[in-house]
């Protein structure tokens, strides 16, 4: 089995304690590679390398346009390696090859976008009220950034963090998920070829409680940017702010897809199916609650079930597969547990609900049937808690006000879909829904250009778009006395 060491200061580096972790193929349930299991000493070395790089003439002395050139070159290298990186991600997280290849072909756009933005972050001249002073602002990089990422879209979500961080002039230590680290370790090698100085980007793999926690606690880390579960995010947020570090959190969701009676029903069915079964439901934006107006409920459910029944579950590398395995054994158990919880709560199981024994190479894999519950009450756990799997809850409503109330009656607020042909209603409801992203007659569109993040328990801060670079900068106000020399020391002017 191939072994992947850490990447520190531009070099592949063995973990200090010499330990390894297996990484498994979800389609077979078997290990296929080993990643280094880092520890606090490795975190120490990586943060020290990132610090040296942050202060180095090669990085700190590089112009913003120079940083942009490097990011652009990196984007080109990712485009060149997109297929190979996608194949690695499919091995590690079991998502469909078609999806991961499209995702990897899109990742360069983050580096091109922030390459272009690097030299367009301007300070301001303040029209100060104090005579004889010239006052202006500078935007300075925060320092060393810890980027902690989940397994579901490892490189896409890494790009969301490190492209703006590097454009801002920060340096980075990445801690990928222990379930899907290999693509990050392959990707990081491209930095040298792109011309980045050693130490600007480092990767320490290992367990969250060992490597992730040590990074968050390290006094040399100025900012923590995290994507993952809300439970871990809450813990990291408290630890980081307790040390007065900057922190951004992209967490989970329980997002509603709201189908009104005037919707184009076939389109709404397509959107709701893609919202929950794409990526086997393992996306933070999964539309896991479908709210349907009573007058079209039965017709909608019939159409939804008819389409959901056709979903082909199988090996993620097979081009005909529409729903792949779930990424981890723990995730499979969690999903099956929630299905039992929903049944016990009185939700009606209309489709799926079982672990699936696939055939051939996939027979030991972690497959679960696409699952649909109707008759769900919004107070049930299946409607309130994130399952992170292909399990859809259908909830009935009568009026627009009731739809908004149910949509907002969860602690999360990451995303929502609205299906209606009435544009007045689309405006009203999109304003009332408490979510960081709202799609109208669509679901799942994201872009490097458009801000992404959560309301309520779904997170803090925004990724993507122009504003995201500010998450890695701090503002300095510079006062220059251009008038009379400093006078009476006891009177401030
Ligand atoms: P997770 O929270 O278990 O782990 C995420 C990362 O945090 C991993 O790298 C893990 O090793 C690390 N970690 C775990 N414990 C830690 C600790 N104590 N200190 C520091 N780091 C620690 O999440 P996961 O299981 O990898 O990912 C699935 C979850 O991520 C889902 O709940 C999903 O909703 C969420 N998610 C959110 C978004 C978003 O953008 N909002 C995107 C993808 C996934």
Describe this protein's structure.
This protein has 493 residues and is an alpha/beta fold. The chain has 2 domains: 2-251 and 458-477, Aldehyde Dehydrogenase, Chain A, domain 1 (3-Layer(aba) Sandwich); 256-440, 3-Layer(aba) Sandwich (Aldehyde Dehydrogenase, Chain A, domain 2). The chain contains 16 helices and 23 strands. The protein has helices spanning 40-55, 57-60, 64-93, 97-106, 108-117, 154-168, 182-187, 190-194, 208-217, 230-242, 265-277, 294-308, 329-345, 381-384, 400-408, 423-432, and strands at 2-4, 6-8, 11-13, 20-25, 30-36, 125-126, 133-141, 144-148, 171-175, 201-203, 223-227, 246-250, 256-259, 289-293, 348-351, 371-374, 391-397, 412-413, 415-419, 437-440, 455-456, 459-460, 473-481. The strands form 6 sheets. The protein has a 7-stranded mixed beta sheet with strand order 15-16-17-14-13-19-20, with helices on both faces. A 6-stranded mixed beta sheet has the order 10-9-8-11-12-22, sandwiched between helices. A hairpin with a 2-residue loop joins strand 2 (6-8) and strand 3. Helix 3 (64-93) packs antiparallel against helix 4 (97-106), helix 3 runs antiparallel to helix 6 and helix 11 (265-277) packs across helix 12. 52% of the residues are buried. The mean pLDDT is 96. The site of nicotinamide-adenine-dinucleotide (NAD) has 29 residues, from helix 9 and helix 10.
Over the alpha carbons, how many angstroms does the gyration radius reach? 24 Å
Give me the number of helical elements. Answer: 16
The CATH homologous superfamily of the largest domain is termed Aldehyde Dehydrogenase, Chain A, domain 1
- Name the CATH architecture of the largest domain: 3-Layer(aba) Sandwich
* First and last CA, distance: 70 Å
Q: Quote the CATH topology of the largest domain.
A: Aldehyde Dehydrogenase, Chain A, domain 1
Q: Shape, please?
A: globular
Tell me about the biggest sheet? 7 strands, mixed
- The chain-level mean pLDDT equals 96
Instruction: Give the ligands present.
Output: nicotinamide-adenine-dinucleotide
Structural class of the secondary structure composition?
A: alpha/beta
- Per CATH, the class of the largest domain reads Alpha Beta
- Share of residues in strands: 15-25%
Strand order of the largest sheet: 15-16-17-14-13-19-20
Q: Which residue ranges are poorly predicted, with pLDDT under 50 across at least 5 consecutive positions?
A: none
The figure for the number of domains is 2
Q: Number of DSSP strands?
A: 23
Helix content: 25-40%
